[in-house]
C-alpha cells in the first residue's frame, strides 16, 4: 500500500506541474513529485541516489523558478 500511495502522490505532483499556469504553484508540484520520487527510491534501498537526485532537482527547480519569476518583473 505504501508504494501505491507514493505512486499516486507522484502522479498528482506531475498533474500539479502540468495544470498550473503560475510558476509559483508549478514549483510546489514539482518539488512534491521529486520528494515522493526520492522517497520511492529510498524505500527500495537507494538512499545515496535519492539524495543526489533530490539535490539536483532542487537546484534545477530553483534556477527555473527564479528565472520565470524575474522575467515578468523586467519592463523591457
From TrEMBL:
<dbReference type="GO" id="GO:0008137">
    <property type="term" value="F:NADH dehydrogenase (ubiquinone) activity"/>
</dbReference>
<keyword id="KW-0472">Membrane</keyword>
<keyword id="KW-0249">Electron transport</keyword>
<feature type="transmembrane region" description="Helical">
    <location>
        <begin position="40"/>
        <end position="67"/>
    </location>
</feature>
<comment type="function">
    <text>Core subunit of the mitochondrial membrane respiratory chain NADH dehydrogenase (Complex I) that is believed to belong to the minimal assembly required for catalysis. Complex I functions in the transfer of electrons from NADH to the respiratory chain. The immediate electron acceptor for the enzyme is believed to be ubiquinone.</text>
</comment>
<protein>
    <recommendedName>
        <fullName>NADH-ubiquinone oxidoreductase chain 6</fullName>
        <ecNumber>7.1.1.2</ecNumber>
    </recommendedName>
</protein>
<keyword id="KW-0830">Ubiquinone</keyword>
<keyword id="KW-0732">Signal</keyword>
<dbReference type="InterPro" id="IPR001457">
    <property type="entry name" value="NADH_UbQ/plastoQ_OxRdtase_su6"/>
</dbReference>
<keyword id="KW-1133">Transmembrane helix</keyword>
<dbReference type="GO" id="GO:0031966">
    <property type="term" value="C:mitochondrial membrane"/>
</dbReference>
<keyword id="KW-0679">Respiratory chain</keyword>
<keyword id="KW-0496">Mitochondrion</keyword>
<keyword id="KW-0813">Transport</keyword>
<dbReference type="InterPro" id="IPR050269">
    <property type="entry name" value="ComplexI_Subunit6"/>
</dbReference>
<comment type="similarity">
    <text>Belongs to the complex I subunit 6 family.</text>
</comment>
<feature type="signal peptide">
    <location>
        <begin position="1"/>
        <end position="16"/>
    </location>
</feature>
<dbReference type="InterPro" id="IPR042106">
    <property type="entry name" value="Nuo/plastoQ_OxRdtase_6_NuoJ"/>
</dbReference>
<keyword id="KW-0520">NAD</keyword>
<keyword id="KW-1278">Translocase</keyword>
<keyword id="KW-0812">Transmembrane</keyword>
<dbReference type="Pfam" id="PF00499">
    <property type="entry name" value="Oxidored_q3"/>
</dbReference>
